[in-house]
Amino acid sequence: MNDILFGNNNQTMMKKMAHKSFAANKKRNMVTVIAIILTTVLVTSVFGIGISYMKSVSKQAVMQRGTKAQILLVNPTEHNLLWLNRNPSVEKIGLERQIATAKNDQAHKANGIFLRWADNDQWKEMTMPAMGDAHGEYPQEKDEIFMPGWLLADMGIEHPEIGMEIRMTCRYGGTTIDHPALSDFQEQTFRLSGWYQDYSGNYQMGNAICYISEEYWKGSAATEDNTRCAASLLFSDDETAAAEYQEILRGMEMADNSELNLLIYSGSKGNEWRLTAVILLIMI
User: Fold this and answer.
1) CA dist., res. 185 & res. 102, Å (int)
2) How many Å from the N-terminal Cα to the C-terminal Cα in the chain?
């Protein structure tokens, strides 16, 4: 019966009909909800896998080139370092120097053994991120040394320990054709401060890079004038590095024996994103 003042009151009836409708379609509604949840989880997982893959590819590229730096300046001058320090795009500048070479009759796979010094930025920001498993600390004392694990194994040391003695025959200088020997070969005894796994081109070519302390360098015949130095430049991303490489070539005056090297492929970051997008599309 219609109520003239208040009209029809169908609210109760509508609630009953809605409840019956939902109950009748409960199974279908549950399937829909579960499908939405699963789709959300799948999409999130796929994007997570894609991002992880991209990071893995980037990490492998860093390990293969042996440094996180994107540009390397060989034999920089003081003017070059000042010029680069004023460049806001350069996030870090690391310095390293070839101090000595070594030979060991027990190391049969090593084509060359080089003793290298690295400053703090070079070591922490550029060299260590490019290493595999690393144990120990950077050398602080004159007789400490940090070595690649494959060289230790080549010398018959399968289970290295921190502090163990390492005997090698070394001479200062003689690291390149342009940097002749500064002393004769002499046997030296080191204490192992650590070791690392090397996956870079140095390992592929049989070149063992060992790290020594600043005290070892300062107490040797090697100086800033008679050894090879390199400045590693770190940028926020590869695109910036590639663009700045061209700017440095155009704007910075370099010495005759200096050399500027781009260590990455131009647009490599974009290629990684494109490859990741393709993988995501395939997985979806």
Assistant:
1) 8
2) 58
Pairing mode of beta strands 186-196, 165-176: antiparallel
Q: Can you give the pTM of this predicted structure? A: 0.76
Helix (H, G, I), strand (E, B) or coil at 245: helix
Mutual orientation of helices 26-65 and 268-283 as an angle, nearest 10°? Answer: 150
Q: Which of 14-18, 114-118, 140-144 has the lowest mean pLDDT?
A: 14-18
Q: 179 by DSSP, 3-state: which?
A: strand
Q: How far apart are CA 27 and CA 225, in angstroms?
A: 82
Q: Encoding tokens for residue 278?
A: 């393709």
For 51-84, write each residue's pLDDT tens digit.
554 556 677 889 899 999 999 999 999 999 999 9
CB 63 within 8 A of CB 77: no
- Our CA angle for 50, 52, 57, nearest 5°, is 95
Neighbours of 84 (CB within 10 A): 19
Q: pLDDT digit string (tens) for 208-264?
A: 999 999 999 999 999 988 999 999 999 999 999 999 999 999 999 999 999 999 999
DSSP state of 222: -
* C-alpha 94, offset from chain centre: 14
Phi, psi of 112 (to 5 degrees): -160, 140
